[in-house]
Write a structure and sequence with these properties.
CATH superfamily of the largest domain in chain B: Thiamin diphosphate (ThDP)-binding fold, Pyr/PP domains
Order of helices and strands of chain A: HHEEEEHHEHH
Largest interface: A-B, 20 and 25 residues
Largest sheet of chain B: 6 strands, parallel
Oligomer: heterodimer
CATH class of the largest domain in chain B: Alpha Beta
Structural class of chain B: alpha/beta
Strand order of the largest sheet of chain B: 3-2-4-5-7-6
Structural class of chain A: alpha+beta
Shape of chain B: globular
Helix content of chain A: 25-40%
Number of strands of chain B: 19
Radius of gyration of chain B: 24 Å
Strand content of chain A: 15-25%
Helix content of chain B: 40-55%
CATH architecture of the largest domain in chain B: 3-Layer(aba) Sandwich
Chain lengths: 145, 581
C-alpha cells in the first residue's frame, strides 16, 4: 500500500484500534495530530502529503487527508518519515533531534513517548510502498511483537 | 638577606597557596622543583605524586580541583613531558576547571625559538589552546609574582587551567626571598567572588516571582562556586523544576522531587514548557541542545535569565532577557532573599507532575533491563548492580563512550562534586586518574572512607590503566569496573548504525584486565555472570587494594545504547552520510 493512500490510512486505523497494547496506552488521551510529509522533488517525491488523526480515549476514531486545526503538528521531509517507518530513526528521537518540526506541547508529546513508539511498530506491520528514490525501501511489513 | 634557588621559591609559593599535591612525572629539569618539594614539602604538607604519564598527572590535578574546589597542580619536564601534559589539560579547560600547570623549560638562552637542544620545544604556543593564561618565568625574581598571577588567573572569572613555563636557569637562580617573598593568597587574589548587580538581581526576582512555570538549570559553574544549596533552596521556594547539564550532575540529588534527570524526556519536556528559565553557571553546549527548541521553549516566548561569572558566557548560545555577571553562590543567595520579599513560598507548577511521569516512563525500561539475567551481562544490569552496591556519597568517575552512556541511565548521582566526568571534552582515559585523585581528595577533605569507584570501558581503560601502579603506591583503594566488550563500542556502534556495519579499526583483543591488575599488585577478578557482580564488588572492597573487576558485557547490546542515535545526530548535525556502496 502506498504511504498516505486512503487504503493505507484505513489500514492504519484498523490495525491501531485492534492493538490492545496501544489502545491501553492511549486510554487517557484526547489529542489530535497533523503529520506533514514534505515533498522532496530531487528524490522524486513531488507532493507534500498532510495527514491528520484523532486519538480519543483508547481509539483512533478518524484519520483524514488534509489540514485541520489539531493539538500537535509534526512536519518533516519525506525521507525522515521513511527512516522512522524503516525503524532506523526512533520517532521521539526524530523530533528531539529536530528532524521533525513540532508545533504543540512538547512535554505532552514526550509524556506519550511509549505510545508513539508502539504506534510506529504498528505502522511497520503494514506492507508499505514509498515514492521516488525511496521505493528501494519498500517493505512487506513485519510481525508485531 | 636570604638567598634561595628559584625552584625553592616556587615551592614556597605553592605551600603558601595551600597546595597539597603536585602530580607529575620527574625529569632532569624538574629535579630542582621535586627536590625542593622533598626538602620543604614534608613539614608543610606538600607532596609530589609521581604518575606513569603526564596526561594522567594533569587528569589528577583536574579531578583534585573538581572534588576539593581548590586548584590542582601538575608538572612535566621540558619537551615530551609538557607535550604529554596537553591531553590531560584539555578536559580541564573544556570544563572550566582551575589547574596550575608547571612545565620545565630549557635555559632562557636556549629557548624561544628552540634551536636544537634535545627535548626542546616552544611550549607556550603548545599550551595556548588549552589554557586561559600562560607565561614564561624569565627571571627568578618574578617567580612569586607570576605564581601568584597564575593562581589568580586560574581562579578568577571563568576558572580554567593556566600554564607556567619554567626555564632551568631560572629554577637554579639565586633570589633574595626577603625581597621577593611568597605571600598568602589574600594578598594577591580576591577570596570573596563578585556578587551580581543588585538592580539586576531585583529584576530577576521580579521575573521569577511572576513566573507561572519557572525552571532552574545548573551548569558546572554551580559546582565550581559551591552554590548547590542556594540553587536547591531557590527552586524549592519557587516550586521550580530543576535540571542540570550533564557535567553539573550532583548539584541536585537525582531523586529530589523537583529534579528532572538531565536529557530525560521529563527534563526536555519541562525545559520546553517553562515560561521563565534561570540558567546558572552554564553555557548550553551541544549536550544541552544549544538551548534551542524543541528541547527548550521557543525564542521570544520563553524568558531567560542567565547568571554567570563570565560576561563572555552571557547569551553565548541562547539569547537571554536578563544577563547577570557574578558568582553563582553570591547571586543565588541575593536572588533568594529578593524572591522572598516578592512572593510567599509556592507549590510546584502542575505540569511538573507530567514531566516526572515522562521521566519515569523513560527510566522504567532501563530499570527493567537493569534486572536482566542474561549472559553475557547486559550493560544496564552491570550499572544497576554497581550503583546499588555503593552508598549515595560515593565518588564515581565515568570513562568511555558507550559505557558512559549506559552508566548515565542507571548510575544516579546524589551529591555535589561526586561525579567525575569530562563532560565537554568527552576525553577518554580520565577514569583511572580521576578516581585516584578523587580518593586522595576525599582523604584530604577528612573523609578517607568515602568509596571511590570508576566505571570504564575496556578501550578507555587502556589509555591510563597503568596508573593502577600509582594507585597501589599511593594507597588509594579505588574500585575500577571495566565493561569489557573488546571494542571501541561507541565508534563501532556508529559504524553499525550509519556505515552499514563496515567495521574499521574498532575491534580490540579479548584482554584479561583482571590479570593486568594483579600483575601491578592490585586486586583483579573477571566477572561473567550477572549474579556474581555484587559479590565480586564486595571482594574488591574487602581486599583493601586498588581493584579491577573485568566484567564481560554483551558486546552486541553494548554497541548501541538507546541514545547513541541522538548523540550521533548532535555530533554529525548537517552531515549526511552517503556511502557509494
Amino acid at each position: 500500500m502506498k504511504l498516505g493512500s486512503p487504503e493505507y490510512l484505513e489500514e492504519v486505523k484498523r490495525r491501531s484500534n485492534a492493538d490492545a497494547t496501544y489502545c491501553e496506552m492511549i486510554k487517557d488521551e484526547h489529542e489530535s495530530y497533523t503529520l506533514v510529509i514534505q515533498a522532496e522533488p530531487k528524490k522524486g517525491v513531488n507532493e507534500t502529503l498532510t495527514i491528520g488523526f484523532q486519538v480519543d480515549h483508547g481509539q483512533i476514531p478518524e484519520i483524514w487527508i488534509g489540514e485541520r486545526p489539531t493539538t500537535f503538528t509534526l512536519a518533516g521531509p519525506y525521507g525522515v518519515w521513511v527512516d522512522i517507518l524503516r525503524g532506523v530513526l526512533g520517532p521521539n528521537k526524530a523530533f528531539t533531534m529536530r528532524k521533525l518540526k513540532i508545533k504543540g506541547n512538547f512535554l505532552q508529546l514526550l509524556k506519550g513517548a511509549d505510545s508513539t513508539i508502539r504506534w510506529v511498530e504498528i505502522l511497520r506491520t503494514i506492507p508499505t510502498e514509498f515514492e521516488g528514490e525511496y521505493a528501494q525501501y519498500n517493505f512487506e511489513g513485519q510481525e508485531l511483537i | 638577606m636570604a638567598e634561595i634557588m628559584g625552584a625553592e621559591l616556587l615551592v614556597k609559593c605553592l605551600i603558601k597557596e595551600g597546595v597539597r599535591y603536585v602530580f607529575g612525572v620527574p625529569g632532569d629539569q624538574c629535579n630542582p622543583i621535586t627536590d625542593a618539594i622533598y626538602r620543604f614539602g614534608k613539614d608543610a604538607g606538600l607532596e609530589f605524586v609521581m604518575t606513569r604519564h603526564e596526561q594522567a598527572a594533569a587528569h589528577m590535578a583536574d579531578a583534585w580541583a573538581r572534588v576539593t574546589g581548590r586548584p590542582g597542580v601538575c608538572l612535566g619536564t621540558v619537551g615530551p613531558g609538557v607535550a604529554d601534559l596537553v591531553p590531560g589539560v584539555y578536559p580541564a579547560y573544556a570544563d572550566s576547571i582551575p589547574i596550575v600547570v608547571l612545565g620545565a623549560q630549557n635555559q632562557t638562552w636556549r629557548c624561544y625559538p628552540e634551536h636544537g637542544s634535545m627535548q626542546a620545544l616552544d611550549q607556550i604556543p603548545l599550551m595556548t589552546p588549552v589554557t586561559k593564561w600562560r607565561a614564561m618565568v624569565n627571571c627568578g625574581r618574578r617567580i612569586p609574582h607570576l605564581v601568584q598571577w597564575a593562581f589568580r588567573a586560574a581562579l578568577s572569572g571563568r576558572p580554567g587551567p593556566v600554564y607556567l613555563d619554567l626555564p632551568s636557569d631560572v629554577l637554579c637562580e639565586l633570589v633574595d626571598e626577603d625581597e621577593y617573598p611568597p605571600l598568602l593568597p589574600y594578598h594577591y587574589r580576591a577570596l570573596q567572588p563578585a556578587a551580581g548587580d543588585p538592580e539586576l538581581i531585583a529584576q530577576a526576582a521580579d521575573m521569577l516571582a511572576n513566573a507561572d512555570r519557572p525552571l532552574l538549570h545548573a551548569g558546572g559553574g554551580v559546582l565550581r562556586s559551591a552554590a548547590w544549596q542556594e540553587f536547591i533552596e531557590l527552586a524549592e521556594y519557587l516550586g521550580a523544576a530543576m535540571t542540570t547539564s550533564l557535567g553539573a550532575r550532583g548539584v541536585v540529588p537525582e531523586d529530589h522531587p523537583l529534579c528532572l534527570i538531565p536529557s530525560s524526556y521529563g527534563a526536555l519536556g519541562a525545559q520546553a514548557a517553562a515560561d521563565v528559565v534561570l540558567l546558572v553557571g552554564g553555557r548550553l553546549g551541544d549536550l544541552d541542545f544549544w538551548g534551542r527548541p524543541p528541547a527548550w521553549g521557543e525564542y521570544g516566548q520563553q524568558k531567560w535569565i542567565q547568571i554567570d561569572i563570565s560576561g563572555e558566557s552571557i547569551g553565548l548560545n541562547r539569547p537571554v532577557d536578563l544577563g547577570i555577571v557574578g558568582d553563582a553562590k553570591a547571586c543565588l543567595r541575593a536572588l533568594l532573599s529578593a524572591v522572598k520579599e516578592r512572593t510567599p513560598r509556592r507549590q510546584e507548577w502542575a505540569e511538573i507532575t507530567d514531566a516526572r511521569e515522562a521521566m519515569e516512563g523513560w527510566l522504567s525500561g532501563y530499570r527493567e533491563l537493569g534486572q536482566c539475567d542474561d549472559v553475557p551481562i547486559h550493560p544496564l544490569r552491570l550499572m544497576q548492580e554497581v550503583r546499588s552496591f555503593f552508598p549515595r556519597n560515593a565518588i564515581v568517575s565515568v570513562d568511555g563512550g558507550n559505557t558512559a552512556v549506559w552508566a548515565f541511565y542507571l548510575n544516579r548521582i546524589y551529591e555535589p562534586r561526586t561525579f567525575l566526568w569530562p563532560a565537554d571534552s568527552g576525553h577518554l582515559g580520565t577514569g583511572v586518574p580521576y578516581a585516584i585523585a578523587g580518593k586522595l581528595a576525599a582523604k584530604a577533605l577528612g573523609h578517607p572512607d568515602t568509596p571511590v569507584y570508576c566505571i570504564t570501558g575496556d578501550g578507555s581503560f587502556g589509555f591510563n590503566g597503568i596508573e593502577l601502579e600509582t594507585a597501589r603506591r599511593m594507597n588509594a583503594p579505588i574500585v575500577i569496573i571495566i565493561a569489557n566488550d573488546s571494542a571501541w563500542g561507541m565508534i563501532k556502534g556508529g559504524q553499525k548504525l550509519v556505515y552499514n556495519e563496515r567495521y574499521t579499526g574498532v575491534d580490540l583483543s579479548p584482554v584479561r584486565y583482571d590479570l593486568f591488575a594483579q600483575a601491578l599488585g592490585c586486586y583483579g577478578e573477571r566477572v561473567t555472570e550477572p549474579d556474581q557482580i555484587r559479590p565480586a564488588l564486595q571482594r574488591a572492597v574487602d581486599s583493601g587494594l586498588p581493584a579491577v573487576l573485568d566484567v564481560v558485557v554483551d558486546s552486541e547490546i553494548n554497541l548501541v545504547p538507546p541514545d547513541l542515535e541522538i548523540l550521533d545526530g548532535l555530533w554529525m548535525e548537517g552531515c549526511e552520510i552517503q556511502p557509494r556502496c
